[in-house]
Amino acid sequence: MPGKLKVKIVAGRHLPVMDRASDLTDAFVEVKFGNTTFKTDVYLKSLNPQWNSEWFKFEVDDEDLQDEPLQITVLDHDTYSANDAIGKVYIDIDPLLYSEAATVISGWFPIYDTIHGIRGEINVVVKVDLFNDLNRFRQSSCGVKFFCTTSIPKCYRAVIIHGFVEELVVNEDPEYQWIDRIRTPRASNEARQRLISLMSGELQRKIGLKVLEMRGNAVVGYLQCFDLEGESGLVVRAIGTACTLDKLSSPAAFLPACNSPSKEMKESPLVHPPSHGCRSTHNSPIHTATGSRLTQNFSVSVPTLIYTGMGSGSAGKEGGPFKALLRQQTQSALEQREFPFFTLTAFPPGFLVHVGGVVSARSVKLLDRIHNPDEPETRDAWWAEIRQEIKSHAKALGCHAVVGYSESTSICEEVCILSASGTAAVLNPRFLQDGTVEGCLEQRLEENLPAGCGFCHIPYDELNMPFPAHLTYCYNCRKQKVPDVLFTTIDLPMDAAVIGKGCLIQARLCRLKKKAQAEANATAISNLLPFMEYEVHTQLMNKLKLKGMNALFGLRIQISVGENMLMGLASATGVYLAALPTPGGIQIAGKTPNDGSYEQHISHMQKKINDTIAKNKELYEINPPEISEEIIGSPIPEPRQRSRLLRSQSESSDEVTELDLSHGKKDAFVLEIDDTDAMEDVHSLLTDVPPPSGFYSCNTEIMPGINNWTSEIQMFTSVRVIRLSSLNLTNQALNKNFNDLCENLLKSLYFKLRSMIPCCLCHVNFTVSLPEDELIQVTVTAVAITFDKNQALQTTKTHAEKSLQRASTDNEELLQFPLELCSDALPSHPFPPAKEHLESASSNSGIPAAQRDRCSSWIELIKLKAQTIRRGSIKTTVTVEKASPVGEGNFRNRSSPPCANSTVGVVKMTPLSFIPGAKITKYLGIINMFFIRETTSLREEGGVSGFLHAFIAEVFAMVRAHVAALGGNAVVSYIMKQCVFMENPNKNQAQCLINVSGDAVVFVRESELEVVSTQQPAANCQPSCTGGEVTT
Amino acid sequence: MTSELDIFVGNTTLIDEDVYRLWLDGYSGLWGTVCGCRFGGAVVLDGRAGRARMSDAVALRVRSGILEQTGATAAVLQSDTMDHYRTFQMLERLLHAPPKLLHQLIFQIPPSRQALLIERYYAFDEAFVREVLGKKLSKGTKKDLDDISTKTGITLKSCRRQFDNFKRVFKVVEEMRGSLVDNIQQHFLLSDRLARDYAAIVFFANNRFETGKKKLQYLSFGDFAFCAELMIQNWTLGAVGEAPTDPDPQADDMDMDLDKEFLQDLKELKVLVADKDLLDLHKSLVCTALRGKLGVFSEMEANFKNLSRGLVNVAAKLTHNKDVRDLFVDLVEKFVEPCRSDHWPLNDVRLFLNQYSASVHSLDGFRHQALWDRYMGTLRGCLLRLCHD
Fold it and tell me: InterPro entries this protein is in (chain B) (predicted)?
């Protein structure tokens, strides 16, 4: 009985009128946890009841504490008939279960009803007394911290990064139970919300147990997803990276890590990043599971694709992407080993040694009813299979680990596509507990000294390449080989030498498929997948070239399945890595060379493409230093001339051996226009409009080349659904529609956010789904951050100094070679052949901004100017040290000068792991919320747009309220994982499910740090932690 | 390809001032008239009709040149406009009780923007307010909004909003004690200026002062508001509230109703014109003092008795509700128009009124000096304001 949960219901406000006669409400509250329920008194005739209840006490196991949500129901008392429910609040008490997070949950929560939306607010106080439980066989995992952030959270230090943890739980979906026919939609929705809440609690507890087994104390990069499999059930699954984290508590350690203004971004990636690689491997093994007995699912066929972009040396010419398609039987005989996967996308200094390229795997499955929820083996087996696949691909790239790993599904009726992707990498074993890392590493470490390019160096054997690629000597250090193009799923390492700015690159693709049932359908999808992947890859490559860039970060390829089509959407951030060769142009070749007008047309197109490339280079400030051949040295032997040694790779059914190398070298990246399709492709290349001036966009955490963020941020979600005209759909028409949809959406965003110029859309996250025949839904979540155009140079300079300092402090204990790292952290690397370009290079090195403007509250926007003037003075680490003596407790309460007339505390939300111009002082726990909203009066609520608009606004409000109740003032790493929208306009009905998550944090503006440090700390800290309310 | 659904939701609610103005002015965001309620919802409208036509609001935005400035397309503008309109519709419920806007959790809006939303929502058109000023804020008046809309060129929607605002403020402060302006400010969070205007509107509506007569057309809302403020300060119960001799506190609203007792007492002033000696004495005092100082001295001298009779009779009649309503008509008829026909310069009016009020103190036979001051002090201010073309 190791825990006592205490709940107090204080008051309500803005309740709806439940009694028409009196225009008032007789409200009371039921507080339920597990099977115990308490009730408050009825507060008669008021829309603002003051219950001021006693403390309701629940004595419960900590296992229940982790699984169960606290359920608060507000009802209207009715003497004669049944009491009417006004709405509910679910409170996840998990944040109270670990000592460093929140100690109390207290504040105003929106009262939510799945039919009516938010109906007033209720003020609740929740506390937990935990007793220590030394039972080693316990089922609970209280105390394990969870973070959505995919890097080591600021104010923590990674002692050990243990590795991959995963778990899934399954259940029947209440919506599909027989009882659903007789109960109200409200009851059904609530049953679902409650079940999912329970399941995610259970899942988190189980993952926690695994972490404890591994002797870790935290999960970073925790990603939990729901699969609504309809009839066959409900799956909740999660992956994450187990770590042992140390709180940086001593001022000395604390400061450098979390705050120096220079850093701000993840401290981790700063130093030594990653790796290298220039090529991407995509594999799409496809399995079709047969009918009834899923456990026996056999693989039908496994076509596997590998494609790479290639180019050679200084000439920057590219070989065309090509593919090799081969079929083989999968052997499920892979040895069952732990997966060396990491869900992190940014890393502690020195962690990432080399990057090999993107690895991905997909599999098509047929869903069947989950017969025994306690034995979710089928789904486990499916994922295990995919992970094996990924692991073997990584091996093929000479890498022992996969970073930036993620998993997703797309479900349509009974067909389910499981996808996993990540970046093959070589890691520094120092951070890993045991020998998951082989000895080969050490030698690599040494060669690795030139930072900023080390991660680009190939991890695989040059003579034994898993696929054909053009290698050159690194343009940075000249010592190691680098590929010509690098694709990764991770964030750009902090110290990577980048030229110019980055940009969002998307590949979009639709493919029609016939409607079919069961196996036939699965097979059809399986057959389409490799082609889609190939085309997506080709598009990405073409667009990358068109931008004049040579690397992609944050690559995310989403394939969605619908009744009669498949959609592919790939997003990534293109950059020009200084270490990689200049990309070649794109050359168009016609098939019928004798036709004069055709020739003319071709040359016209060619000119347009060349112009575009030139324009883009200017736009993104890509002006790499010219390097003469002599300096580069002799070009690397052409792949064809090299003898190929085949590796014996037992695990991966090695595609490599059968790759067609005949296209190994070509003079340029050639697009052959041999049919109208290809023509379309070329056209579509040119139709992507660059963002209006003053706007940049990327899907990574930070924008390479912009480092002077100011503090204004605007997180938003935008949803669009289009209906395709149903007749005579062709692939081309589809592609065009889809392309227009995405482009128009982006244009709208630029227009809406025009007042923030100059600004950058960061972490642009597109998801596409096909809710019905002929409907395409695109959901975008991103954050717009303003930056200061004029301060780039100065900032870079101060930043460099800072990062130098910081790097040295950080690294001394972590790494053996602090010196080298320090010099790396300087943006101005020794770059002998290009001294004249030093300046430009340094100003563009993707090191994050040091200085930011801070404006903590709304009202402060007004003061922006004044602060801008002050900015120059707030830069040194000294400030930081001064700040340190201030008790952390002070920061818990938002110390931002509260605006005089605002009564609701501002809660920032961002998909990034940091807040510009501010320092995160505390993580309060994970926010993971699931809501259902349904309406039977769609028209009256403003149609589908009105309905969803209101719902999303409500979801934001509920997230903010929970964060404020925990004492926080921001959510970082916020993500909307699911937004499932269904409508039936004829019945005037609609339903929507939304799942969001993030980390609740307390942040302090750097400007306030300064104030706090110079004044009495207590003076400007308002005790406003109760729900972020400032009583005025 | 038609757009079924198209939304944008920011963590910080975006407020576009220009679009807000269009919305307040009642321009339609859809190409129907009532949002989302035709043809089975916004669905059809959003899509098909969207290509063909632009809504009024979008057309106006296009006209403002925003497309050229931003390089956006009309479709983008339409989508943006709809987003804002939806937001405003959701906010409207909260704007009806502005303190709710401050406490609500659904929209995260910076305080400065909240203030702007409220202030603009409660702002009104001069042309509109002149039409309804002093009218009973009832259903009957609401029915006339159609005509007002046609007459003023203000959209019906906007007329309704303004009318409903007046009525809502009226209802809320009607039963309240204490300063009218303070009450309005507290419950509607308006700026001082706007709260004063609303106080005037409420005061006029409550006392039903006639403002619509043709001869009053030359007066602006500002003129009336100025008078209202003076009257609230001096002629209501609240004005004497500091001396709590008030026998029963329930009796009247402090600031909204004129002080009945005071009105009753005003009858006593009649002696100033009824008593011939007193009237002559008064006239001679004024004439002596103003001789040589007034450009229109002779006209004044000739008209003195008429003017004085007019002003005192207005006071004496105020016991009847009907006459209270006609206060402004009477003032204009009895004083402003005679002055105007003799082309009195404003300064002369001022000198005259000052002297006219002050001289009464020297009338030994007159015992209601305090009453006179309370009456004339306010009236003098009002008359000066009313004397213009």
Answer: FIBP
Rounded Cα distance, A707 and A500, in Å: 12
Write out pLDDT tens, residues A278-335. Answer: 333 333 333 333 222 222 232 222 333 333 333 222 222 222 222 222 222 222 222 3
Q: Least CA distance to B111: which residue of chain A?
A: A902
**Coil, helix or strand at residue A204:** helix
Is the pLDDT confidence value at A1015 over 60?
no
**What is the C-alpha separation between B178 and B254, in angstroms, rounded?**
6
| Two structure tokens written together for A260 | 């120096």
The helix-helix angle for A251-258 and A792-814 (nearest 10°) equals: 130
Q: Which residues of B touch A940 (CB under 8 A)?
A: 37
A17 touches chain B (CB under 8 A): no
CB A943 within 8 A of CB B41: yes
Residue B278 burial class via C-beta count within 10 angstroms: exposed 0-12, middle 13-18, buried 19 and up: middle
Collect all residues of chain A within an 8 Å Cβ-Cβ radius of residue B11: 714-716, 908-909, 956, 960
Task: Classify A56 as helix, strand or coil.
Answer: strand
pLDDT of residue A354: 85
Report the residue of chain A nearest B109, measured CA to CA.
A858
Give the Cα separation of A49 and A13 in Å (integer). Answer: 7
- The nearest CA of chain B is from the CA of A944 a distance in Å of 6
Residues 938-997 of A with CB under 8 A from B: 938-940, 942-946, 948-950, 952-954, 956-957, 960-961, 981, 983, 985
DSSP characters for B117-159? HHHHHH---HHHHHHHTTS--SHHHHHTHHHHHHHH---HHHH
User: Does residue B18 belong to the interface with chain A, where contact is any CB pair within 8 Å?
Assistant: no
Contacts for A191 with CB less than 8 Å, ≥ 6 apart: A174, A183
Which chain B residues contact residue A938 at CB under 8 A? Answer: 41
CB contact under 8 A, A943 and B112: no
Is the pLDDT assigned to residue A782 strictly greater than 70? yes
Interface test with A, best of B2, B3, B7 (most A CBs within 10 A): B7
Q: What is the CA radius of gyration of chain B?
A: 27
Q: How many residues does chain B have?
A: 389
Predicted complex ipTM: 0.86
Please state, for a pLDDT cut of 70, what percent of chain A lies above it: 65
Residue recorded with tokens 């890595």: A577
Identify the band that residue A861 occupies on the pLDDT scale cut at 50, 70 and 90. very low
The whole-number pLDDT of residue A266 equals 34
- Inter-chain CB proximity A946 and B9 less than 8 Å: no
Show Cβ contacts of residue B366 under 8 Å, excluding neighbours closer than 6 positions. B271, B272, B278, B360, B372
Contact by Cβ (8 Å): B215, B333: yes
pLDDT at A375 (0 to 100): 65
User: Both tokens of residue B268?
Assistant: 């006593």
Residue A109 · residue A1026 · CB < 8 Å: no
- Residue pair A334/A361 in contact by the 8 Å Cβ criterion: no
Can you give the pLDDT at residue A761? Answer: 92
User: How many contacts, defined by CB atoms under 8 Å, are there between A and B?
Assistant: 173
Residues with Cβ within 8 Å of B100's Cβ and at least 6 positions away in sequence, in order, are A14, B94
Of B3, B42, B104, the CB nearest to A722: B3
Band the pLDDT of A100: cuts 50, 70, 90: low
* A956–B108 CB contact, under 8 Å: yes
Q: What is the pLDDT of residues A657-708, one digit of tens each?
A: 333 333 333 334 555 555 556 666 676 667 677 888 888 899 998 887 787 8
Is B187 an 8 Å CB contact of chain A?
Answer: no
Which residues of chain B lie closer than 8 angstroms to A692, CB-CB? Answer: 70-71
**Is B4 within 8 Å of A775 when comparing Cβ atoms?**
yes
- Band (pLDDT 50/70/90 cuts) for residue B52 is very low
